[in-house]
Amino acid sequence: MANSSWEGNCLLNFFNNKSSSEKDDKTIFKSKFTSPYKLLKCSHDREGRCILPILHTAGGLVGGDLLEIDAKIGINSKVLLTTSSAQKVYGSVGRSKINPKGAFALQKTTINILDGSHLEYLPQETIVFANGLYSQEFKISISDNSSFLFTDLIRLGRSSAGESIENGVFRSKLEIIRNCNLYDDWEFVDQIELNKFSFEAKSGMDSMPVFGSLIWICKKDFPKTKFKELEKNIKMIFKQNNNYLSLGTLENGLSIRFLGTSSQDARKSFFSIWRQIRAVCGFCKPEYQGVWPLQDSINY
After folding, report:
1. pLDDT tens, 3-27?
2. Which residue of 168, 185, 265, 273 pairs with 180 in a disulfide if CB–CB is 3.0 to 4.6 A?
3. DSSP labels for 182-200?
4. 233-251: per-residue pLDDT in tens?
């Protein structure tokens, strides 16, 4: 029997296309990809930032699927990388008599951010259906004067249909390291596993199906006064929110967690924080992207 699993690859190379004209300063890219990946048309904001949505054409992941993204963010580039829809992970446990324990769908992402560059990787949420098995790995390499912003939203089960994760498992590993030839300069390492026990536990998710992470790694010489201003503004956002939000301070950045019942609430919270990060960095105000769900454009 032939293997019906997807093995898709997406290679992205971003670089600054600045010419002798100061007005022509924007990031462009070259790419190579295989199914089920597809790239939608990119756009640029007024700072020349390349805004690129990635589409998964298969409609979801099943056990045994392997997806890989490899991106290089060239010198003095600005990139917003996103996706056009939620990633769905279908049930695997108990679906096959040959392999009743099921098989994990795996996504690997490797990103290298070079000098003076800024990457915002803001994909739509991942929905793990009942009995779905999903593992994701991120390896990020960043230079001293670059920055990286990442959001990750997970919904365990289709709660609107009364479904939970059941015997499913979500695993995530994120590693962020500064480029250094002499030694490993780790900025952030995060490893998470969510399952039925952690979903139901009072000390875990307490049956709230939406878990989110926002990680921001700034350049090493980021002013402390601006960092304090950012923390103050984010805490104000927390006071206006009815969900569970936490803020952790890193050596060069922030780690924020969300726990609640609404993916829309999570997106709105992270959008507000993203706007504060853009402001304190001196970048232009983020705008709602047309590839994102239309109903979420209200009241941003």
Report:
1. 557 899 999 999 998 754 556 689 9
2. 185
3. SS-EEEEEEEEEE-HHHHH
4. 999 999 888 889 999 999 9
